[in-house]
Write a structure and sequence with these properties.
Layout lengths: L15 E3 L3 E2 L7 E4 L3 H12 L4 H11 L8 H13 L3 E6 L2 E6 L1 H9 L1 H13 L13 H19 L5 H19 L2
Antiparallel strand pairs: 1-3, 2-3, 4-5
Helix pairs in contact: 1-3, 1-5, 2-3
Amino acid sequence: MKHKNRHAGGRHRHQFFAPEGRSDLAGHGRHRLFDYGEMRLLVLSLIGENPTYGYELIKTIEDKFAGSYTPSPGVIYPTLTWLEEAGHIRPAEQSGRKTYHITPEGEAYLAANSADLHAILTRAASTDAPEHGGRRNAPVPVLRAMENLKTALRLKLRNGGLSAQEAEQIAALLDEAARAISQI
């Protein structure tokens, strides 16, 4: 296999955290939604259901997890590369984009790992419950506002970080919004 783990100590570079589940490798008290290799299995199963491309996979996974988890392109595209190098998927040009299709080797891999896939899909189904933060039934204006907030925070943090005063201001705004929402 062409893919080699280039990360120290055999740890996978991408960590997928959720409020409940198994603890992460670093032991920081946060919990991972996916163990090493599970994202590959999930992506492969989705491609097996319907040939697709990267962005569509991101949206499909977000929908499967009821909005409580959205993989980044930095997670999806390396996963697609690994699956392609392993011979589990093959790309094809379709409508000007690279669409991935499962191979017989990929189908055999899914069959051999069906119990693990079932566990992943069971976790995905459990995120529909309100206590898991699922957003599937949230009103469109609320979802739009949540996305606007997420984007604004990402842009602010990406553009050189924050001063201590800016960080305090943002935290105060978020705390106030949380208090106001809880009183509605």
